[in-house]
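During the no-cost extension, the postdoctoral fellow (Dr. R.K.) reprocessed legacy sequence entries with the updated structure-token encoder. One reprocessed record is reproduced below for audit purposes.
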Amino acid sequence: MLFNSIPFLLFLPLVWSIYFLLPLRYRWVWLLGSSYYFYGYWKYEFIFLMAFTSLVDWYCGRRIKHASSQRQRKWFLWFSILSNLLILFFFKYFNFFFGHSELARWLYQQDAAAWAVELARYTIPAGISFYTFQSISYVVDVYRGNDVAERSLPRFMLFVSFFPQLVAGPIERFSNLQNQLFAPHQVQYQNLRYGFRLLLYGLFLKLCVADNLAAVADQFYAAHQGYKSAAAWTAAAAFCVQVYADFFGYSLMAQGAARLFGIDLMDNFLKPFLGRNIPEFWQRWHISLSTWFRDYLYIPLGGSRNGTSRMLLNVMLVFLVSGLWHGANWTMILFGASQGLFYWVDYVCFRKAAAATGWNARLNRLKTVFIFMLTLVFFRAASLSQSTEVYRMLFAGSEGTASLSIPLMTQLMVALFLLLDLWFTQKRFDLWMDDFPWPWRWFGYSTLCCLIWMFGGTVNHPFVYFQF
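Re-encoded structure tokens follow.
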């Protein structure tokens, strides 16, 4: 179920209304059922996969708590991690590594496995990378002693499946979300006010900015050979802002939907285009994933404890895994590798850039956004050959004759978004609006509603990160 759809527009107020009408002890049960309905609305078969993941990790968490030896604790920890990674590998990466192998053909001939191979070949369960990582973090934190093992399986299933952040994050920690899900929330005007602001602004970013820019980028990548070099630069810039507005818009809508129930989700973006180098950029972009890799991969690999060379190697390994997390293809792996390479360059050559001020800071920010925009060609291209051809068009020119332009109204809405994000506000949108008297606030809400109504994208594009 897409946030920018009529079914969700009906689903959210219905779930919210019944939630607050129910007695306190039944509310979480209603949220659990609603979350599974939300996930199964797209393809019901995958709710059993998510339930199985929850069952395994809940069981492993309990056994880790009650294990009689450190060896048993480690055994259940690694059983949980490997079972999660095996499921993730089968549905997301099996076709990439073994799609035309004898193993794939043999599995397809087995009645018990044929349906799963068929699903894995053509469909990736929505959000499987997000809820898998969230579930793994719980087991690791129980093992480390940072969290107490959840006694109730259904309650743990709600932690994994909570619908606002289920399919595209933010990837929450058990310690942050669990207590909130079962607290005795009451209807509060402040929660409704902040929640609807985030939903409205997130919808504006998705429909008016991201979807209109998606039309530009899609037009270019559908037949890139016929375009001029200038068109390649236009498409690269359009997609850079598109993917930011799209994912930022989703994250705000997830926070807004959760806030209606009195639940606070973590911020997933902190003005990444203000990052003065690649390391700082990734501290601001997709924060829940960046911190997940830091806590559960980078630090266990040794972090920065064993010298600069080992630290840079760990950074590259993290970015390679991050690229593979984004997609089972070589373009995503190269996207991750390029981020790791530029991280190295910035760390070794421009480490002082993070402390720059004035015009030096502005130039460093432009450099960082420019680098990120170029690496996103790997992210958007359908194949390695297409990405190679697009880079050739960017830097060596093109024999094509077609032009590409961004409509004026789209340019104006992009400008409005970037001004709000980079200049005018130093706060999240819902908090920033509190600085204005109510007539100006309602003028802002009305303006956003009119823009959404008049200039929302004509094609309803799925959120970019739903595919992960």
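Residues 189-222 form the longest helix (34 residues). The mean pLDDT is 88. The remaining legacy entries will be reprocessed before the final report is submitted.
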